[in-house]
Amino acid sequence: MANYEQKLADLGMKIPSILMPRKDVDLSKWAVVACDQFTSEPEYWEEVAADVGDAPSTLHLIYPEVYLNEADKDQRIDRINAKMDEYLREGILEAHEPALFLLRRDTPHSPSRWGVIAALDLERYDFSKDSTSLIRATEGTILDRIPPRKQIRKNAAVELPHIMVLVEDPQKTLIEALRNHVQDYEKVYDFDLMKDGGHLTGYKVDRPDLLENFASSLEKLADPRSFAERYGTEDVLLFAMGDGNHSLATAKSVWEDLNAANPKDPAIMEHPARWALVEIENIYDDGLVFEPIHRVVFDSDFSTFEGELKKLGRVSFKDCNSVEEVVEKVEKSGDPQVIGFLDSKRTGIFTIHDSNYTIAAGTTQAAIDALTEKGTNEVDYIHGLEATESLGRRKGNFGLILPSLDKSDFFKTVIQDGALPRKTFSMGEANEKRYYVEARKIKQYY
């Protein structure tokens, strides 16, 4: 094992052997957006299916969550797993020698955002709210979201990540240092993403000297002494979940089951399912923008929601002239908290004094949970203002507009307060989410 490999292993990371489609595959059809996007817009996924047809595509390897309530769920999962086997058997997916992939993403909203594809050790990850592990969840994990994902992964031959993990590197010593040598790398892919997803370019990083520098920089970020000086604790948070928390939690659950089923097998700790493929990004990347995740509640009304809010603090409502005015007031808020509201009749803001929760997302979620626990309402979490207004204006629905989270306070908040309320933030708009491109084998027999 090379020196840098041992350093990375000590920090919960592994340099993976990445699977990529063979050269004749059309990557613009291969890559589709994360399965948990556009969950209230089946027409989006219908258009993707029409564009892809029978071409090799990650669409055939994932389960778009817009279809989670369909009747033939088990049959769809069987088809997904069978297609994974087919792509490996027929050589549609080909393995690269172990390397990091450095990628650049250009979108309509951002000129560039950089990330590194690597594998993280699930033994170093704990998604519980008060976790002090090296790899942590940053939002509350909804346990009932794990079983359907787990049903796919437990029999899957490969994994395809839409997981984005954050490091806090204000001096830009890690990913940006790799970016400085981009002209020296082999270009693995360079193509336009479908459905206004922007452009993606990927490079293979396998030079030992650069990998050694990368590992040393990561060591410095994880130094317990400097961490204690900044945050008053030596429980280092090196990798914080950005997107895909439930996918990583699913990988953890599958790994724990596998480990528990093979207690006397010493080789189990080398099983590929112990690791999960992720994209790592610097929270200080100029192209990384934290967007709020808004809510749409179905089959409810203003008075019912207001009643639940009033159980959480002192509440008042004020009408606004436009959604733009709502957004402006929400983004300027802090204490007291401000939540935007819109339905078929109203556009305005709730102001909440003395809330039981630290941030507006927590107050909002508590009120929504009180509604959905009664079993009469459903909620969808929306990435983007336009979809929130479109759905929220429909009769019987309402939309809730939340403020964005200051990313400079992100790590400090998670360290001091534990996991944030679920669906507190989003890394960019819906079409800026990770598109499935790279894969990795997670079964031993392949």
Give a short synopsis of this structure.
This protein has 446 residues and is an alpha+beta fold.
Describe the structure in your own words.
This protein is α+β, with helices and mostly antiparallel strands and 446 residues long. 31% of the residues lie in helices and 23% in strands. The chain has helices spanning 3-10, 27-30, 42-52, 73-89, 146-153, 175-179, 208-221, 224-231, 245-261, 302-309, 323-331, 360-372, 385-392, 410-417, and strands at residues 13-14, 19-21, 93-95, 100-106, 113-121, 125-126, 135-136, 158-159, 164-167, 186-192, 199-205, 239-243, 275-282, 290-292, 294-298, 314-319, 337-342, 347-353, 378-382, 397-401, 425-427, 440-441. Strand 10 (186-192) and strand 11 (199-205) form a beta hairpin. The radius of gyration is 22 Å and the shape is globular.
User: What is the helix content?
Assistant: 25-40%
Enumerate the spans where pLDDT stays under 50 for 5 or more consecutive residues. none
Per DSSP E runs of 2 or more residues, the count of β-strands stands at 22
Large-scale geometry: globular
Largest sheet: 10 strands, mixed
Structural class estimated from helices and strands: alpha+beta
What is the terminal separation in angstroms? 23 Å
Q: What is the CA-based Rg, rounded?
A: 22 Å
Write down the overall mean pLDDT.
92
